[in-house]
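Anyone have tokens for HECT domain-containing protein? Sequence:
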Amino acid sequence: MKAKESMTKEEFEESVVLKWKTTQSNGELVYLKSQGTDNRIRYEDVEEYCSQVIKTRSEEFSLQIEALIKGFNLIVPLYIGKILSWQEFEERIRGPNEISAEVLQSITTYPGCSSSNEGVKRFWRVFKAFSNEEKSRFLKFVWGRDRLPIKSKLKAEFKLDMYHNSSAANDAKLPTSATCYFRLYIPNYTTDEICRSQLLLAINSCGEIDND
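Reply: yep, here.
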């Protein structure tokens, strides 16, 4: 279409050679008409040709898409799509895009210490100051997934396991995690800055849980 719009009829027919066929994703040649497929496309046929190509390519995976829809319907009834927007649907499946520190804090337990521990308070100050992307990476580091489920479906328990003593020796150590248990092992760092730096180093350096 762009070539046609920028050319006269004579220029088009001199320089553009198109026939009533196109190539699918698998390299298979498909004819767009039952007859006259080897006829050269004329200037006035370009719009019809483009429409036929778009129709053919858009229907290329119709059988696979139909099978996908049938399978999806076995798990989630399709009528849900008439009730929820795609954003609401995504949130119910993957969880909210925005990660709430308050929600995570509400499901946290503290093996061997308490929420009043100064190191625990420091961790939450640092975590709440993270960007949403950093919070997402943190979740992946401690849990293997990058979002929290919607609150009504959140049954997991986050365990924050902290070394008791705050010391310069701890400042050199990195936090570790057990993703199967949604558990973080973190030293009791001496400052918020060190806590933030070591947490970011750990969550940005870890690999994917599914990379094996």
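The longest strand covers residues 158-166.
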